[in-house]
Amino acid sequence: MTVSPSGTTKKFLSLFTQYNHIFEKCAIGANTETYTHCSNYTELFKDIDHNSCSDLENACPIVSKYIKQLEEYSEKNIEVYIYLYYYMYGKFVENKDNCNILEIYKKLLKVYCESDEGKKCNDLLSHINNYDFVKMKKLMDQHSSFFDRTYKDDSNCEYAKECAELYEQYIKDCYGFVNSYYCNELKNFKYDYENKMKEAKCPNVPKILTSAEVIDLQYFVVTPVSTMLVICLISFILCKFTPLGLCSRHQKKKDKKKKAEIDVISSKHLNTSKKLHRNSSNRPYNIAYHSDSLS
Predict the structure, then answer these.
(1) Could you confirm whether the keyword Transmembrane helix appears in this record (predicted)?
(2) pTM for this model (two decimals)
């Protein structure tokens, strides 16, 4: 039975439409005059590959307006800024081979946070730098594309199989009790995938995907037991078939022989002592009494 992700696991994709609407509103009427740090976009991106990006002159004011509006809404979740990368990818990337949108995204966040406008986002960059946008972008694309299709016949079964195989690759990064947005969203994908595949007519496509928690439990239990077995096996081989084991057994024999000799000597000494004691007990004593003559 498929278990729903806990309430603490955030549905990253569930708010996509809401924040996309905010982004589209910000794209209307945003201009560089409002945000002075956006006045020279070519200087901003001079060290970044951006030749195949489109409409990049409007990227800075749009992004600045989006972040400022979220700050006014008191949005503190890092997810709302991560959505921004996804929107920028769709709006400004013309040819991904010559448009480093990730570096452009980070640059725009940096200049905004360092400006007078962005006093509230000083801790934002540290979170962003630890986030794998490329992986999340692939997962979001896969998630969206998978649920846009139907699986009542075999027309989309190959794609479902491909999604399952990609998931099995992605989930390996979450072994070892990893807690991240990426791993949490993989958990959500697994839950939604298994629900959708219950009625699918795809006999050669897995209905159940691997759970990171199951792998973690197996690792937690199996690894220590396996280690103990290996140690025991190595110890047995060393003692049985190597010079170290032979020397150890030879020394044990010597110690055992020496102990036996000591026991024999101790036993003889004890018997001798008992015999002497017996003999001394049976020997008669002649006591001479001296008497003075009475006058």
Answers:
(1) yes
(2) 0.57
